[in-house]
Amino acid sequence: MDSFAQRKYIIGALILLMLLTFVIRLFYLQIINEEYKISAENNSRRYVVQYPSRGLVYDRNGKLLVENQAAYDIMVIPRQIKDLDTFALCQLMDVDIEYARKFFRREKNSYKPVVFIPQLSLEKFAAIQDHLFKFPDFYPQTRSLRKYPFPNAAHVLGYIGEVDSSIISKNPYYKMGDYIGISGIEKSYEDELRGRKGVKIFLVDVHNRIKENFENGKYDTAAIVGNDITTTLDIELQKYGELLMANKRGGIVAIEPSTGEILALVSSPSYDPNLLVGRARSKNYPVLNADIEMKPLFNRAIMSSQTPPGSTFKLVNALVGLQEGVITRESRFSCSAGYIIGSFKVGCHAHASPLDLENSIGNSCNAYYCNVFRKIVDNRKYKSVRKGYEVWRRHVNSFGLGTVIDTDLPMSKSYSGTIGNPDRWDKIHGKGKWKSLSIISLAIGQGEVGASPFQLANLVSAIANRGYFYIPHIVKKIAGNRKVDKKYLKKVFTTVESRHFEPVINGMELAVYGPGGTAHIAQIEGIRVCGKTGTAQNPHGENHSLFVAFAPKENPKIAIAVLVENGGYGGTWAAPIASLMMEKYLKDSISGPLRKDLEKRMIEGDLIHKNNEAQH
Amino acid sequence: MRRNINVITSVDWLTIFLYLLLVLLGWINIYSAVYDDEHKSIFDFTQRYGKQIIFIAAAVFIAVCLLIIESNFYSLFAYGIYALMILLLISVLFLGKEVNGSRSWFEMGEVRLQPAEFAKFATCLALARLLSDHNFRFRDRKFVARIILIIMLPVGLILLQRDAGSALVYYLFIIVLYREGMPALIFFLGLAIPVLFVVTLLFDKIYLFVFLLSLFYIFFYAMYLNLKHLGISLAIFTGSVLLAISYFFINNQETDWSYVLLVSFGLSSLVYFFLEFRYKLRNAFIINMIVLCSIGFTFTVDYVYNNVLHKHQKIRIDVLLGLDQDVKGVGYNVNQSMIAIGSGGPFGKGFLHGTQTKLNYVPEQDTDFIFCTVGEEWGFTGSVFVLLLFAFLLIRLIYLAERQRSVFSRVYGYGVVAILFFHLAINIGMTIGLAPVIGIPLPFFSYGGSSLWAFTILIFIFLRLDSSRMQLL
Ligand SMILES: [Zn+2]
Question: Domain range for residue A162?
Fold first, then answer.
């Protein structure tokens, strides 16, 4: 009767075939393919980064140097925008309509929040805040920017900026839009200052509205605020140093010898660190960077490490001579307006002759140090000039000259200065063919020798301590009970024994107080100052003025090095500036009409524009 | 000869059990899809799951009523019911509430009814009545014309309501017609052409080739169980493929897989053509030809789509098939739907823990895309369980249809199978990206009174007919 009954099998098979296809497809979607699970998470989970506030920075007396100020990014998810009155928006936010058009053309397909206007100041944001509800797709995101109550110490404090892709690829902590320390303390103490970002995970619906905390916040992490840092800087001293160095090129570094704490680190010309905050940075940085006349971004206190130390270097040669036993404090060498051997001559100025060691420092006799240097290098004990030279060089290095001083200022490691390498003498004069006379300029701190004000300050610090120094450093204390690196608490001994320092220090005292002393101008009433002038030969123009000093003589509280480029003799600019700095630090103010007058002269002295006029 | 048999003892309780289980699972998933923290009570009638409880209660009431009505009422009044539904379909065009530019709903206070849903069982009854005519023959043109009229009348009216999805359901009545003796060739072509058409445009044709080829070889092996012939054929196929690959490789060209497979298949099938001629296997020859033609057809579709059609024509087809990749458009829905289901993994995220559906990433999540909730919260296990329930129900219905003594009941039974099958295939296929996006509900699962009641009526009329099958000779 029913001849088509077997067709039920075909129909049943068709149904089962389809269902089997579905099962296979579901197996692929739900079990094999992982993509959909990831998409689902991306879809619905919103990771809201909790930015910690960056640690604050104080000076040694608790004065705030770096603080945070709130800024507001105006965010938007372009894909979400409906019925936008672009004109009204631009009017409210005070931006160019062209800017907005370009922005939306570029970002129109973004599902992620993007910054429409970056870093509105609190004042600007407050002005528009009440009207923001008219544009529900736009919302503020708080960002924290730096603010500098003092327009000083820019080179020390450094600045922060947004990370670039190379940083992101090296360190996964950083994400696009994060800030990182780029220079100064901001860079060297980045890990302490930045704190730790937290994250809140929300579930968002298809319209990107936050619905609830993901798993009741089980996977959220709180942001940990950055640690506050107390620096070793004395901001008043720093400020004063910058004032004194106005319109001069150069640097000042002042150190507390008993701790190695950097009291001031001045590089001039400088800039107001507030210029490099937030949005302003992109505008101002190129301007500062392009200023090749002033080079305000160039930290001369540390980076001018190829400047010859001039006569300040005689201190080192005296100490090495004493340690090597080639001279004693009684050794005298005659000087006939210079050091003359045959037709070879290193000139000197007029002074009594012969001088002993202490007076040779006080009078800064060139001939004396030519003799001392040759005795060290040509010492029979070492069998060859090269060996003798290497012994000398090792002694010099032990003062932190020509070597890296492992400090917490980022740039210092790449600016280690120079103490002529013997291989270089081999190259110039031929292997084994050079003698002490070939490199005699090293005796008086010229030629293949270079040191930054920072290194010279460390040198005087070691002399002030009679044989050792603490590694100079800029950070005194990190909040949150974090100890400063132990290396800053350890004495670093030079290779010269303590007993050899007394005559050298006496010589430095003579330079300030003795007859024929080169730095009488550095005297401070009631305080015994020890110093040494230096003049760095400058083939490009006026010589550089140098002065190193510490005070008081007993229990020194401050060691200082000053470089004033094109300042001529050490006694002209560097010594008075150093002396005023020390007086300011030790006595808190400058006393007496003479000193006040000197201060005025120093502040008003303009070596930059004067030189320019001379050139024209 | 009539025997009075109590409905309670003779009705197929297994089907009722499956029906109730599916309705219950459907409600649980609607609850989960709509659920939010503010509305937790299951009897919150402002929420859709609360309303669905009322719909279910009404459905049970309807079911009981249908079981009480005498079974010969349905065959007697089949045409009358059909006519009534046609009238409703016409009147809704004028009196219905306009939603999104189409009038397909009657609104009576809180209750909305969609006549198109109810037209299905009416058409089913009318078709059953027609095919159970003693004089019915497929060769009789008059009958064929009537069949076409009965089916096309509601289709035309539903299309006027711009409800293409509901209209397409009627296409699957070819299953019923096939069972009742429509030529197999028409049936297979009728199924294959639209399927191939959609599949060709929806997927890379390479997948289709692989599918058809496997089908071919499985079929022939199953038919002859001769490993030697299969081996020869496969050897020719493999050799040809390797040859072609090395040809492309030597000439440094990119291998065009579809052509390689096509040519290799053509060569390898020669073995079977030879066998078919030798042993005069007409059926095998026809099936062989069908596979070959299918492949030819996909090529044609592909070629026409890419080279003949104008851009605006293509767009129209794309929109129809849900290929429109506009993220806010249909493509977006399917993508979100697959993300939701895919993210369920093997065991799902658990009841009320689906994020994609709960956060409204999936559109229409309690109606057309309700299967997403199943997939996300119950995972592969739950999805397969639901599929198995449906499979079980369909097979059970076929079994019931086959045991009918009257042609009327059998035709009606197959009508039920066809309608459920279409809804199932399109609805779930759409959520997992295997079928074009056509907005039709998943039987028993999707939220809404009309569709639940329509499926209830559809099934319970059949159960009533089945329970009294012994009353007829
Ligand atoms: Zn002299």
Answer: 47-231
